[in-house]
Amino acid sequence: GAVVSQHPSWVICKSGTSVKIECRSLDFQATTMFWYRQFPKQSLMLMATSNEGSKATYEQGVEKDKFLINHASLTLSTLTVTSAHPEDSSFYICSASLTGGENEQYFGPGTRLTVT
Amino acid sequence: GQQLNQSPQSMFIQEGEDVSMNCTSSSIFNTWLWYKQEPGEGPVLLIALYKAGELTSNGRLTAQFGITRKDSFLNISASIPSDVGIYFCAGHSNSGGSNYKLTFGKGTLLTVNP
Predict the structure, then answer these.
(1) Do the chains contact at A103 and B33, CB–CB below 8 Å?
(2) C-beta contacts of B49-52 below 8 A and 24+ residues apart
């Protein structure tokens, strides 16, 4: 149980284009989903917290107009990287908390974004 | 903001040896979680701890929630090559309106030599 999927697993795009990453909870409902970014050999950096049916809460320093988050249902959240630049290249990972769960987060397999 | 100090940063051990890693914090946490991440994948939850003093096992893994609520350790017994990966501790506190956010340690890179 508690399986989270991400799509795509990797993507290469050109500078200036937008990329959408999907995060799905496959066997449970997730009121809250989280988006992280991870650079090589570093820990996870929380970008934003996404609550179903409401606006996402962004961490300090994360541009909300650049990283658009939509959490339209209890099983799907999307992250859109708009006007991507090479410095946006990174490993993006989502996680989900079970509705009523005790703070456990279950992670997706990640999406490797490369902007050329 | 809250920070977790995780140590050691890396470990190189021989197959069969036991491993111990820990996390400490200057503030109190209500939940401690331990994750393992392999290259190119997302972290996988290993053990979750909810009460001070709690000791929980998952196969060869054992983790404890410190009495002071400011620390936790993870032990791996009789290591095997597939234990290789980065282990992260993560904590949750109810203070400051954190609303389910986790604070992560910087990770312990474990290498097991067969």
Answers:
(1) yes
(2) B50/A102
